[in-house]
Design brief:
6 strands, 6-stranded mixed sheet, alpha+beta, 5 helices, Nuclear Transport Factor 2, Chain: A
Amino acid sequence: MTPTPEENKRIARQFPEEVISRNKIDHIDEICTENVIDHHDTFGETRGREALKETTEYLHDALAGPSATVEDIVVEENRVALRWNSRGIHDGRFLGFEPTGRSYVVEVTMFARMKDGKIAERWVLSDTLGMLQQFGIIELPDE
């Protein structure tokens, strides 16, 4: 039986709410297909649950207590679009930068293609530039 759009929405929102906010990295096994493809603007493309878990663990190691608040979610058939605010503290090495101890709040957008009630492919856009600015690592030039 094909999942309804509402079921797809419920499953897709578990990534920010369960995997990110509650650090349930093994939940990826329940909500993603075995060969999930992840396109991330900061980390590039990964394939498979284990690779996605590694990327997620990296984020949790670098950013203390990340939490996500879903602000918008739109679903059409097997596609789900989410926008959430992510917040936490830079307390580990991130993209080669030593911890700053500074907090951040950034917007993240995720588009998911669902297959048989699981996330089969994700496209993630996060405000990494804004995050690095909040860490004090990057400054924009004055206009």
